[in-house]
Amino acid sequence: MTVTTFLWLESGAEEAAALYTAAIPNSRITSSTPGPDGRAFIVGLDLDGHAVTLMNGGPGHPLSDAASLQLTVDGQAEVDRLWAALTADGGTPGPCGWLTDRFGLSWQVVPAELPELMGSPDPARAGAVATALRTMSKIDVAALRAAHDQG
Question: Which domain of life is it from (predicted)?
Answer without folding.
Answer: Bacteria
